[in-house]
Amino acid sequence: MTKEQLGFRALADPTRRSILRMLATQDMTIAEVAENFEMTRAAVKKHLLILNEGNLITVETDGRSRRNALNADGLKHLVDWFSFFDTFWDDKLLTLKTEIEKDVQ
Amino acid sequence: MTKEQLGFRALADPTRRSILRMLATQDMTIAEVAENFEMTRAAVKKHLLILNEGNLITVETDGRSRRNALNADGLKHLVDWFSFFDTFWDDKLLTLKTEIEKDVQ
DNA sequence: TTGACATAGTACCATTTGGTTTCATATATA
DNA sequence: TATATATGAAACCAAATGGTACTATGTCAA
Questions:
Q1: Distance in angstroms: CA A10, C1' C4
Q2: Which residue's CA is nearest to the C1' of nucleotide D10?
Q3: What confidence score (pLDDT) does residue A3 get?
Q4: In chain B, which residue's Cα lies nearest the Cα of A26?
Q5: Residues of chain A with C-beta less than 8 angstroms from the C-beta of B8
Q6: Which residue in B11, B21, B88 is closest to A84 by CB distance?
Q7: Residues 6+ apart with CB under 8 A from B38
Q8: Which helix (DSSP H) or strand (DSSP E) does residue B90 occupy?
Q9: Which residues contact B66 (CB under 8 A, 6 or more apart)?
Q10: Taking the C1' atom of D9, which residue's CA lies nearest?
Q11: Rounded to an integer, what distance in angstroms lies between the CA atom of residue B28 and that of residue B68?
């Protein structure tokens, strides 16, 4: 799978998007993340793995616990994907502008 | 499913992201889209349905054919989701700046 | 060193997903 | 009207996904 695909796949689940928002506030262990969901730690761990594969979080072992942290780079890379459509949006705006001018005349 | 979920779900497949990029260039019928992929028209139609459910394309019946067009609004809505992390990015940049200043001194 | 704690790993299950095939419907057009 | 064209829809299948339960491993601390 491409990096892009791993990233978008990671975003496709609401639990994982929710985890990302939590990690924006503070780094968390698996157990801490799991406290916020009504599912087993094992399930949360799977989500964290997919987020890590998608390059959206970093994981750092610290003794017997692991700290999961948001990875800004990975998120930015996905935002960049949308920039492909910038031209399209500009065109649409131009079309809109033209239509408005027609109306005015 | 929420609108947001339908949108991210639609982006999670590489074929669908590819279709979106095609439609940025020009509107296309199902058959025209299908010409670009090595899969059946039925499969492409399913992808277009999911893109439509995700509010990423609009579909307009024109006689016996249907024109699929990119929906800028839906795409923009998804881009907006990422803006939640703007603060996080700013913080990271600030941290980086602080670290650099430490190095300089 | 023993026990508790935090995570890792595996097996398993139900549902969703991405694809196919086949058949049906609606609309241009000769 | 008959026919070709464009799409709709349903049944079906293999693989991926999101979850569980259970067991194993590594690490801190009394």
A1: 34
A2: B42
A3: 96
A4: B88
A5: 8, 11-12, 17
A6: B21
A7: none
A8: helix B86-104
A9: B29, B30, B59, B60
A10: B42
A11: 5
- Which positions ≥6 away from A83 have C-beta within 8 Å? none
pLDDT for residue A89:
77
pTM for this entry:
0.88
Nucleotides of C under 7 A from a protein CB: 5-11, 17-22, 26-28
Which SS3 state, helix, strand or coil, does residue B70 take?
strand
DSSP chain A: --HHHHHHHHHTSHHHHHHHHHHHH--B-HHHHHHTSSS-HHHHHHHHHHHHHTTSEEEEEETTEEEEEE-HHHHHHHHHHHGGGHHHHHHHHHHHHHHHHHHH-
pLDDT tens digits for range B9-38 = 999 999 999 999 999 999 999 999 999 999
| Closest Cβ opposite residue A12 in set B12, B21, B85 | B12
Quote the tokens at residue B63. 């006689």
Kindly list the residues from chain B whose CB atom is less than 8 angstroms away from the CB atom of residue A5.
14
